[in-house]
Design brief:
Helices cover 31% and strands 10% of the residues. The protein is built from five helices and three strands, in the order H-E-E-H-E-H-H-H.
Length: 158
């Protein structure tokens, strides 16, 4: 983990109860499944914060309300809120969200990841970095960064 925490004492919230999703009796294996806000939240809620042993949900970095899904147009936007305005891990958190969704969703989806307006000192720079394909690809070639992302994502696969 990181030494010299930016936010040494974050506020930790209670996790929301998981909703059980019932599958219909007959499933057409060739039908295209629709993806909704709840499904996206279930994919990302357990991602661990890079600095703390808490999930992004527990720190309210992500909430269900901050997820927009347009399944018809294969578009998804996640707006996350760093715990502090000068969070040095904002790009890592955004990268974790992007990698988790790249691994979980069909490739037809355009994923837009943003810092909530007014919640980060370098919001525009972070948003540009998280949504630039070349920058994301370069970041994913860094073995140290991949190890950090994989460590954050591990609880979300349990």
């Amino acid at each position: 983990m990181i030494t010299g925490l930016i936010n040494a004492n974050p506020v930790v919230y209670e996790k929301k109860e998981r909703q059980v999703r019932n599958a219909p009796g007959y499933v057409d294996e060739y039908a295209v499944d629709t993806i909704d806000q709840q499904e996206i939240f279930d994919h990302i809620r357990d991602i661990k914060d890079p600095e703390h042993p808490y999930s992004l949900e527990e720190l309210k970095v992500i909430t269900e309300d901050a997820i927009e899904v347009d399944d018809k147009n294969s578009y998804l936007r996640i707006t996350f809120t760093p715990t502090v305005e000068h969070c040095s891990m904002a790009t890592v958190i955004g990268l974790c969200l992007r990698v988790k969704l790249m691994r979980s969703l069909p490739s037809r989806y355009k994923v837009d990841i943003r810092v909530a307006p007014g919640t980060h000192a370098t919001e525009a720079a972070v948003n540009k970095q998280l949504n630039d394909k070349e920058r994301v690809a370069a970041a994913l070639e860094n073995p140290n960064l991949i190890d950090m992302v994989d460590e954050c994502l591990a609880p979300s696969y349990a």
